[in-house]
């Protein structure tokens, strides 16, 4: 069974090597996953989650999206992700 998903994130996001930090710390190779580059509002892992939540809302015939969260960024992402579907 396929899980409903809307695809609006720019995936996969790049992985970058932090060579200067690795060298400064004298440690192993350090990598960072650039989820800030998902392309929706300010990016982040919320974009991945919204692809599934908004698909479910659409499939259930939702007419309104309600977003709750600590940061205004959550609201911006929900609005950005929902705009193509409900506007």
Structural account:
It is a single chain. The protein is mainly alpha-helical. Helix content is 43%, strand content 7%. It has three helices and two strands. The protein has a two-stranded antiparallel ribbon. Helix 2 (45-59) packs across helix 3. The longest helix is centred in the middle third of the chain and has 15 residues, at 45-59.
What's the arrangement of secondary structure elements?
Elements (H helix, E strand, L loop, with lengths): L14 E3 L1 H7 L5 E3 L11 H15 L12 H15 L1
Helix pairs in contact: 2-3
Structure characteristics:
87 residues, mainly alpha, two-stranded antiparallel sheet, 2 strands, 3 helices, 7% strand, elongated
């Amino acid at each position: 069974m396929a899980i409903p998903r809307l695809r609006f994130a720019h995936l996969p996001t790049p992985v970058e090597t932090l060579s200067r930090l690795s060298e400064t710390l004298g440690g192993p190779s350090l990598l960072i996953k650039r989820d800030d580059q998902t392309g929706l509002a300010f990016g982040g892992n919320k974009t991945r989650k919204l692809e599934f939540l908004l698909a479910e809302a659409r499939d259930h015939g939702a007419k309104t999206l309600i977003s709750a969260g600590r940061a205004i960024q959550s609201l911006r992402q929900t609005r950005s992700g929902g705009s193509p579907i409900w506007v």
